[in-house]
Structures are given as C-alpha cells and as structure tokens.
Amino acid sequence: MPFGESTPFILIARCHVKQDCLAATRPPPDAQVADKAVKESEPGMLHHTFDQDPTDPLAFTWSEVYKDDASLLCHLTNPPLVKFVEQHGEMGDDFSVEIYGTIAPATKEACNALPFPVKYFDTKFGYSRVA
Question: Could you name the domain of life of the organism this protein comes from (predicted)?
Fold first, then answer.
C-alpha cells in the first residue's frame, strides 16, 4: 500500500497547562468543548481522545487518527479547534505536534504555518487496516 495524502495517519498533540489555570485532576473545559465540536463536524476524524499524563497532571495528549490529508486540513481550519488553540495560548505553557504517517508536501506546508512546532515521522513500510 503506498502511503500519502489519501491514507490514514496518526497525530499526537502534546500540551501542558499552567499550574494556576487548572485543577490538576480535571481536563480543561475548552478541551471538552473542542472535542464535542470536532466529533459533530469532522467525519474524517476517526479517533480523537484527550489523555492525561500519568506522571504530570498538567500534561495532556490529544491522540488523533485522520482518514486522510483533507481531514487534517479541515481540522486545522475548524473554528472550534482554532478557538481551542487560541485559548491554550493563554492557559498553556507548551504545545507541540507529531505526525506519524506520510502526508503530502502541501499538507506539511500548512502545518508548518501553525504557531507551534510540528515533527514529521514519514512511513517507510507497514500497513493500515483503518479504512
């Protein structure tokens, strides 16, 4: 199977919330709002979870599986996500993204314009059963 803009891939977004902006045992409410909106408006988002780091209660990870590049490009311009990123800029002190899977150069260009670092892990071989 050739990997590229029409194949599924994984995105991991790591964020850290400022101590004074969050009760350590609760996810930020803006994350819950963003998750609900993404579920309702992005059919190409196949998996979307917000996971808390077991060793740092202020560190969270978005685990996401996309159907294809078009699904990621839709996500990047979805108003609830844009709002979450803006709010995290006020509440958080760190945010980075890792993409596991091959995406098109144009999609990487769109990601490189984001206000946080993105690291790419292009697929060399393997398979996906995500349809």
Answer: Eukaryota
